[in-house]
Structures are given as structure tokens and as C-alpha cells.
Design brief:
Length: 150
């Protein structure tokens, strides 16, 4: 499982011309799920995202988590995070899990992240054509892969 976290001042998801969800200051998390992701991947990433110290303290140092900052979280499914550009110029998405595997893991990630963080969690809609608007704060963007725990 891969996540891409962006610290945001605000974020919203629009589907079919209608605002679907939005948050204020916090983090936007894009989630890419592969065939062999498990509950262990979910737990590790939810914990890591919740405790990631990317928010400024009173001295302007990134030393606070989303929990400590009182931020909100937006979670959006994004199969393209599992894209491979190893061969040619057209990405391959062979490693992205299909909906039968990905939807339950996506929903479980949202539930575990909410329990772990205690933050308001907004979402996109799995598989929808979404327009995501955000103001990246910093900018701060962090990529984390549960299979490569660096």
C-alpha cells in the first residue's frame, strides 16, 4: 500500500460538478492499493500518517502531528500510485488492486485512520472521476510505501 500525504490549508473533492466533501487545515492522503496489501499494511500506514510530525509548532518547526495540530484528514483512492514506469512511456497499473480487493481495504484504512487519529475524516468516492482541489501548505508532500518502510 502506498500513500501520498500533502499538508493542506484546505481541500475539496468534486464529483459530477457537485462538491462531494471538503476539509480545512490538515492533510490530504491519496491511497494506492496493491494485490497483496493486508491489515498489517493498513495499521502501519494509519499509525504513521497519524503521528507524522509535519505541522508547525509555536516556533515554526515541523514538530506536531495532525492530531496535535487539530487538523482534518481527506482520504482519496488513487490507483495510479501503484503505476510502474519501468518500461516505455505509458505507465502500467498491473500492480493496482481491482475493486474487489481495493474497496474493502480502502474502507478499512479510513476506519483505522479515524480510530488512530481521532480526526475528522472526509473522503472521495472510490472509482469515481474526481476533481481534487487543494492548497498545499508549505508545500509539504510525503510519499510512504508500506512494503518499503524507510
Amino acid at each position: 500500500m502506498r500513500i501520498l500525504i500533502q499538508r493542506v490549508k484546505e481541500c475539496s473533492v468534486t464529483i459530477e460538478g457537485e462538491r462531494y466533501s471538503s476539509i480545512g487545515p490538515g492533510m490530504l492522503i491519496f491511497v494506492g492499493i496493491t494485490h497483496d496489501d493486508t491489515e498489517e499494511d493498513i495499521a502501519w500506514l494509519a499509525g504513521k500518517a497519524s503521528r507524522l510530525r509535519i505541522f508547525d509548532d509555536s516556533d515554526g518547526v515541523m514538530n506536531r502531528s495532525v492530531i496535535e495540530s487539530g487538523g482534518e484528514i481527506m482520504v482519496v483512492s488513487q490507483f495510479t500510485l501503484q503505476g510502474s514506469t519501468r518500461k516505455g512511456n505509458r505507465p502500467s497499473y498491473i500492480h493496482a488492486a481491482g475493486p474487489d480487493i481495493a474497496i474493502p481495504l480502502y474502507e478499512r484504512f479510513i476506519k483505522v485512520l479515524g480510530a488512530e487519529s481521532g480526526c475528522k475524516i472526509a473522503t472521495g468516492r472510490f472509482g469515481a472521476d474526481m476533481q481534487v482541489s487543494l492548497i498545499n501548505d508549505g508545500p509539504v508532500t510525503i510519499w510512504i510505501d508500506s512494503k518499503n518502510k524507510e
